[in-house]
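agent> Task received from the user: take the single chain below, predict its 3D structure, and emit structure tokens. No templates, no multimer pairing.
agent> Plan: (1) validate residues, (2) run structure prediction, (3) serialize to tokens, (4) report one or two observations.
agent> Step 1 OK, no nonstandard residues flagged.
tool_call: predict_structure(input=
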Amino acid sequence: MRRPNILLTGTPGVGKTTLGKELSVRMGLTYMNVGDLAKEGELYEGFDEEYECPILDEDRVRFQVIDELEDKMSDGGVIVDYHSCEFFPERWFNIVFVLRTDNSVLYDRLESRGYRGKKLQDNIQCEIFQTIYEEAMSSYKEEIVHQLASNTPEDMEQNLEQIIQWIEQWMKDNN
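)
tool_result: status=success, residues=175
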């Protein structure tokens, strides 16, 4: 039975990982966190002192992670979690969900993760200016890109229900 591939994207702290893992459990889909794959593969080219985080070697991420995911994606039933979407092949995804969070909520979430200074400001600005949403709209067909509010546990449950309904309908239509 064919199953859809889903991209969960959005600014760090919007709830991609929580949603993706729970969706994986409820629907029996494979969950892939690209940030974790990069960490496991040590796909870094240094450390950014200002942002206090490793600098991703985007070329290595593109090739190594894309190669690693290619077979899995062709089998279907994969949820990909990443804060960017521009380097994934368009053919991979049946639907893209961009999670959005109110700035005050996002600020508190990022601050509790230890984000400070420029790193905190830049991520909040990314959300304010809808950077990830616009990136998704320019990378994929408009009709497969959807924004979901992700501010509260109730939002999370509603998003899970909505995505599960979408998956079930997709499977009826494509099998």
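agent> Step 4: summary for the user.
The helical segments are 16-27, 34-40, 58-75, 103-112, 117-128, 131-139, 153-174.
agent> Done.
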